[in-house]
């Protein structure tokens, strides 16, 4: 089978998977979820602590039927009230998520834009020159953009369970020079 044929087959499978979610019109359901996660910022020479957080999120489909019911929008908050050395140990975020559903399996992917109070690299790391530490600190601001994927997510009636969601992104103003990696260990949701 040629590379063109393989590419066509992959696209057909993707279209069928996406169409599976729009075949059946469901009531416009809002979802509230609670998750346990951790994340770390990485720069060229230093990184941040690994932050354990609790997350509360809200999502809803854009439309009840048609192709727009595959797009969810929402947002939420992450916090660790026990984190020290931070003025505001809270993150707020907005998400747009594309869903694909087949039976009970419901994968979710999409971008996340957030504002983080956990925007500090570990200060007590030896670097070749003190100027580098100052320059790295300037790269990490409170705003970040990430791409999230939840491939191990199932929906059982009104409830959803997702394991090992992965989110990779960058912070601003040092876009591309600072990396943010987040793992949601478990997320439990309920439809309203």
Q: How would you describe what is shown here?
A:
The chain is of the alpha+beta class and 192 residues long. It has helices at 3-23, 130-139; strands at 31-42, 51-61, 71-79, 90-102, 105-116, 140-150, 152-156, 159-173, 179-191. An eight-stranded antiparallel barrel has the order 1-2-3-4-5-6-8-9. 21% of the residues are buried.
Main pleated sheet: 8 strands, antiparallel, barrel
User: Would you state the CATH class?
Assistant: Mainly Beta
Nearest-integer average pLDDT = 83
How many domain units? Answer: 1
Q: State Rg.
A: 19 Å
How do the strands of the widest beta sheet line up side by side? 1-2-3-4-5-6-8-9
Percent of residues in β-strands? over 45%
Task: Count every beta strand, where a strand is a DSSP E run of 2 or more residues.
Answer: 9
The residue fraction in helices comes out at 10-25%
User: Can you write the helix and strand succession as a string?
Assistant: HEEEEEHEEEE
Structural class: alpha+beta
According to CATH, the fold-level topology is Porin
Number of helices: 2
Shape: elongated
């Amino acid at each position: 089978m040629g590379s063109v044929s393989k590419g066509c087959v992959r696209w057909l499978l993707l279209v069928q998977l996406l169409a599976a979610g729009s075949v059946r019109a469901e009531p416009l359901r809002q979802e509230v979820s609670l998750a346990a996660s951790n994340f770390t910022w990485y720069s060229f020479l230093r990184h941040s602590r690994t932050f354990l957080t609790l997350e509360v999120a809200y999502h809803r489909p854009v439309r009840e039927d048609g192709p727009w019911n595959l797009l969810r929008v929402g947002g939420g908050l992450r916090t660790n009230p026990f984190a020290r050395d931070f003025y505001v140990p809270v993150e707020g975020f907005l998400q747009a998520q594309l869903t694909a559903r087949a039976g009970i399996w419901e994968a979710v992917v999409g971008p996340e834009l957030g504002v983080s109070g956990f925007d500090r690299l570990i200060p007590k790391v030896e670097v070749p020159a003190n100027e580098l530490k100052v320059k790295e600190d300037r790269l990490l601001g409170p705003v970040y953009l990430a791409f999230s994927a939840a491939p191990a997510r199932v929906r059982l009636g009104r409830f959803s369970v997702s394991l090992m969601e992965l989110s990779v992104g960058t912070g601003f103003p040092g876009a591309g020079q600072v990396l943010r990696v987040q793992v949601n260990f478990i997320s439990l949701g309920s439809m309203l």
